[in-house]
Amino acid sequence: MIRIYAVFKSLGQKVKNNVNQKFLTYLFFLLIAVAIWYLNALNKDYTANLRFAVKYTDLPEDKVLANTPPNYLFLTIQAQGFTLLKYRLGLILSPIMLEASYNTMRRKTNSPNGEYYLTPQSMISRIAAQLRSDVDLKYISPDTLNFHFTETVRREIPVKPVLQLQFEKDFLPKGKMLVEPAIVTVTGPQTVVDTMQYVYTRAKAFRRLKNTLRTSIELQFISQLRYSASEVNIIQAIERHTAASIAVPIETINMPEGLTMRLFPGTVTVNCLVPVTDYEKLQPHLFRIVVDYNSTDNQSKVRATILRTPDYVTDVKFHPINVDFIIEK
């Protein structure tokens, strides 16, 4: 019984292998036939509508664009199938360079002086020259491009870095960040330039800082605007900080002539973080803490206010904030 089963199993395997071999042979010749047909089809000419990126050149320098012309042109072209396939796969696509100067644009009639238009059809020979020699350019869409120019204004605007700084333990910035240039000249439409408070840099993060930061960062550009600089240099001193505590006398301000204010206590304790190299320079006169006579009406205590600190200290706190007082003639 076992031998009969083995014979039938062996026979079935031979039939299966024979069927698989015939199918694979059929599939192989089918693929060859399809490839030959496809290659033959690609040798023929076809008409297709393809999208091309466009870059505008020679724009008037005395004005700026107030609108945004199309970023793409649709070209109807006739070419061999191989060429069209390369375009569709992006193998030979490149931006179409379109001259938008006073010489090529036309001013709109019955419109403000800043409105012009350009017909790509009028430049069909220039655009065709940027395509392959075996491509026949039939049509360009859109057939009209509108340009709205406005007069420019110039303003000097401060630069504001967009930075995320993370420091090693006990390390902090020392002094103010140096930005060079700190101010850039911005040229563009008045409606845009007049609303700007700052020119921002690109966002950038720095981690585990413990040495002076020196870096260059590009500015964030806004379309329609021109800048006198494309990037700024940034220097930020970084140093190990330590805690410091110092007694500072309180001053009185706005005292009427003939009156004296006695404070209890007459000094406050200022706590802050100070760079290690500046620790010995810390002196009471570098701080100014005052109480205002005009704030004493119907009060049993008067609030102290800090008006000045050295520029190299951070995290400044003092106590007591409210002090007792007596006014004497």
| SSE pattern, N- to C-terminal | HEEEHEEEHEEEEEEHEEEEEEEEEEEE
User: Which blocks of ≥5 consecutive residues have pLDDT under 50?
Assistant: none
**Assembly state (oligomeric):** single chain
Structural class: alpha+beta
Mean pLDDT metric: 85
Give the end-to-end Cα distance, rounded to a whole number of Å. 132 Å
Number of strands: 24
Helical content stands at 10-25%
Largest sheet features? 8 strands, mixed
Radius of gyration: 39 Å
Number of domains: 4
In what range is the share of β-strand residues? over 45%
Number of helices: 4
What is the general shape? elongated
Please give a handful of descriptors for the protein shown:
329 residues; alpha+beta; RNA Polymerase Alpha Subunit, Chain A, domain 2; eight-stranded mixed beta sheet; seven-stranded mixed beta sheet; 4 helices; 47% strand; elongated
Set out the fold topology:
Layout: H1 2-42, E1 45-57, E2 63-65, E3 72-80, H2 81-88, E4 96-99, E5 106-107, E6 115-118, H3 124-128, E7 136-141, E8 145-160, E9 163-167, E10 171-173, E11 178-180, E12 183-189, H4 190-193, E13 199-200, E14 204-209, E15 213-218, E16 226-227, E17 231-236, E18 238-253, E19 260-264, E20 267-275, E21 288-292, E22 301-308, E23 314-319, E24 322-328
Parallel strand pairs: 1-4, 8-13, 9-14, 18-21
Antiparallel strand pairs: 1-3, 2-8, 3-7, 5-6, 6-8, 8-12, 10-18, 11-17, 12-16, 15-17, 18-20, 19-24, 20-23, 21-22, 22-24
